[in-house]
Amino acid sequence: MTYYGTDASGGAAIIADYNATGVRQDRYTQAGGGGVPVEQFASGAHYAVQTDALGSVRRITSAGGATADAYAYGAWGNTTSQSVGVAQPFGFAGMPTDPTGTMYTCLSRSDARGLGNLY
Question: What's the longest Cα–Cα distance across the chain?
Answer without folding.
Answer: 40
